[in-house]
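USER: My hope is that you can spare some time for a protein that puzzles me. I am handing you a single protein, as its sequence and its fold in token form. Walk me, if you will, through where the backbone shape changes along the chain. The protein I mean follows directly.
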Amino acid sequence: MADKTLPLVISAPEPRTLDLIFTPPQLARLRSHYRIVETTPEGVSTLPAETLAEARYIIGQPPISAETLEKLKALRCIFNVETNLLNNMPYETLFARGIHVVTTGLVFAEPVAELGLAMALNLARNIVDADLAFRQGKELWGGDGNQTARLLSGADVGIIGFGDL
């Protein structure tokens, strides 16, 4: 039986799961300090009125209508685990009520930066096409295989649309 004095968290983090988001010790700590109600994003609006009224936090980015938000009387923060801030909740109303919407963008910054570097190297050195040619036995060697290759060193590079990099 859950301790009714613990703050209530609605968990709807699709496409992730709590097991993917938290390490086992972190998840155990979360569960020991909060009551967790797990549902789907679409299921949030159908939770019992008393659950919605008591929910202090939401993990995920479920669609929240103005009507559902009105029922979330104790809501303090939405932890968006995707970082893409879908237009599926009334942000202005959330902010007017002092409800924070936070993201995990920094969690993805380093892996996305490395992916950006990999993409830049691929474009500069034509790695994917060279790999395909090699697999098909059509590889080119020496200057023939590097006619369009260029160095990233000293090049101007712009990255557009990579979030919190």
